[in-house]
Task: structure prediction
Amino acid sequence: MEYSPDGPVPLGTAGAIRRALPRLPERFFVIYGDSYLPTDYAAAQRHFDASGLDGLMTVFRNDGQWDASNVEFTGGRLLAYDKKHRTPRMRHIDYGLGLFRRDVFARMPEGAADLATVYQDLLAAGRLDAMEVGERFYEIGSFPGIDELSAFVAAQQRGEKAMSFSKQFFEEAKQILDQIDIGQVEKMAEILRATRDRQGRLFVLGVGGSAANASHAVNDFRKIVGIETYAPTDNVSELTARTNDEGWPTIFESWLRTSRLKADDTILVFSVGGGNREKNVSPNLVAALEYARSVKASILGIVGRDGGHTGKVADACAIIPTVNPTHVTPHAEAFQAVVWHMLVSHPLLKQAETKWESLK
Result:
């Protein structure tokens, strides 16, 4: 094995290849270092040789499953490739295996350059071919990715088929269940019971899919637990009027002010990121939480990622563990429902029996 160091200044994925040209033959493969690609490399080489072009990109029908799709590939032709500006027509993804002629990099100027730009330039010049592969790639640049690859290799050794997307998704869900901080969830139940005992109210805040979860949770906490519960996003007229007149960042705060939020009340946040003012992620949640703190209301959260601002200021917070960075949002929003349904079923809180289309 031979190495070609960048030197004191990083050269980028294409600049590093150009620097390595003295060690490379006339035609060569380029493989991403953080990927395991169980595909037919010889077939890719035959396809490249037959094309007579300068480059070949292998693509996989991804549909946003394993990472963000970035390739438009139709009828065996590569029509578009862009990692930054994606379109709904991009159903495929750059698989991570490419083939190139040496001249592609020899005619590049020295210095830093990105492989994505090389692909795009070849595509624009009509010198890039594409081949679709059928087996998914495995990301091995993270511990969850390595665990997933290990399971795949073990299954191969047992003569089993590769794990389907559905099985992987539910395996991730099982991992999340095992990793949720039960202590924090129990503390949430205690705070909610105290809120009800002092006749406080519960306000559920969420944006996007979490706002839909908030509406459902309002019903459950009112009907099953007996807490006076509200969600500002249930009133679209007021929400949009405040957005027009006051701006998005303050809509929840101003709604809570009008609702006369007080120390006996509790805020429950549903969010993927938990709010981050510096990164402009749900700043309306941050403003609402700061106001809640100022009136000494209790704060609870069911959030994803690292918990964001919610995780920092909450009295109790269930952070949905990230077991696959690609699936942070679907898991976070799905487990919001799991956790709140557990809470309304908790012996500390449940007052009314749940029924299924009862006719009695």
Q: What stands out?
A: The longest helix spans residues 328-345. DSSP finds 13 helices and 13 strands in the chain.
